[in-house]
């Protein structure tokens, strides 16, 4: 029989070892995918520890991200988000104010496209994505993979919901929020990152009168929470949660910003995805240099994106910039 001393010196169990990996927002259930979904449904965001994604190769991702960011800042990589513009379309040159994002990480013209694609089509990530969307892995659609970087000067994003304009009435907001999102969106931090600010729970309700009349850059929205990510952590968030970005131009930021959809909702997602221009190159992408299982997954998801492009016609831009 074990004595008290023996018990206290026994090696920690797996659960004890990983207790601090799990952010407090994750409910205690034995199924981690379901736990993530419950937290996302409840709070509108969920942070997953780096330990859940052992195949993410942070060193290679940082290398690839630094090279592409340098190319974007110098005007060589044309797919960028420029200051002071919050929404697409963005110009292809940084101009005098510089950039805050790099678009199309998986574009075949990027010499490191496969490094980024390996993290986007990662088997474990796709399992989370399919549970969070509520579809099977066969129904997943390739969407966007971009990167949010340290802005070249002072910059912040206004409070917004990605897919609901600020002019929407309470009724319109609630109607849209009541519909399924048909995609999952995430930030994967390559360096510690505290730029995303959310109002937890706001993905399930219309804006309060305070939120509605607040300054677009209100620094203290009631209930706001800064989503703090350590390098390697992944935050999934509902793109219609009330959120903004607050950036520190002196601190390195390279956060991969991805979304994956489902064939069950391609018409709803078409404008959101295609306005970023991914349709122009995705059909040329062959994934030849991938290992076979990943190649098959990537091809199927790419085909679903190409189909979405064919059936949606001209989608235009949903530009909320003044
Ligand atoms: O910087 C971030 O993490 C937020 C980005 C964002 O809100 C957006 O692109 O709409």
Automatic annotation (TrEMBL):
The record's SUPFAM superfamilies line, in alphabetical order, gives: Clavaminate synthase-like
Q: Which Gene3D superfamilies match?
A: q2cbj1_9rhob like domain (2.60.120.620)
Identify the taxonomic lineage of the organism of origin.
Answer: Eukaryota, Fungi, Dikarya, Ascomycota, Pezizomycotina
The biased composition feature labelled Polar residues covers: 22-32
What name is this protein filed under?
Phytanoyl-CoA dioxygenase family protein
Query: Which regions are flagged for Low complexity bias?
Result: 1-16
Q: Where is this region: Disordered?
A: 1-32
């Amino acid at each position: 029989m074990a004595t008290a001393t023996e018990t206290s010196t026994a090696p920690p169990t797996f659960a004890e070892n990983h207790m601090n990996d799990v952010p407090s927002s994750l409910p205690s259930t034995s199924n981690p995918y379901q736990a993530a979904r419950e937290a996302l449904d409840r709070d509108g965001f969920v942070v997953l520890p780096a330990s859940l994604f052992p195949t993410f190769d942070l060193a290679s991702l940082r290398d690839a991200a630094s090279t592409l960011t340098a190319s974007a800042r110098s005007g060589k990589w044309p797919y960028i988000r420029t200051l002071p513009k919050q929404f697409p379309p963005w110009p292809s040159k940084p101009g005098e104010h510089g950039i805050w994002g790099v678009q199309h990480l998986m574009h075949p013209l990027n010499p490191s496209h496969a490094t980024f694609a390996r993290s986007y089509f990662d088997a474990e990530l796709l399992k989370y994505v399919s549970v969070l969307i509520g579809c099977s892995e066969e129904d997943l659609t390739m969407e966007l993979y971009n990167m949010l970087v340290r802005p070249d000067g002072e910059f912040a994003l206004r409070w917004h919901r990605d897919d609901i304009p600020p002019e929407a009435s309470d009724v319109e907001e609630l109607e849209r929020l009541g519909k399924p999102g048909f995609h999952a969106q995430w930030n994967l931090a390559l360096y510690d990152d505290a730029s995303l600010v959310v109002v937890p729970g706001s993905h399930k309700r219309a804006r309060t009168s305070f939120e509605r009349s607040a300054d677009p850059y209100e620094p203290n929205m009631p209930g706001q929470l800064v989503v703090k990510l350590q390098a390697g952590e992944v935050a999934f968030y509902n793109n219609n949660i009330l959120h903004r970005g607050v950036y520190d131009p002196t601190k390195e930021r390279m956060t991969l910003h991805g979304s994956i959809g489902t064939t069950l909702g391609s018409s709803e997602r078409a404008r959101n995805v295609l306005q970023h221009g991914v349709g122009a190159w995705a059909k040329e992408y062959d994934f030849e240099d991938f290992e076979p299982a990943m190649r098959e997954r990537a091809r199927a998801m790419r085909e679903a994106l190409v189909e979405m492009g064919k059936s949606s016609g001209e989608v235009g831009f949903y530009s909320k910039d003044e």
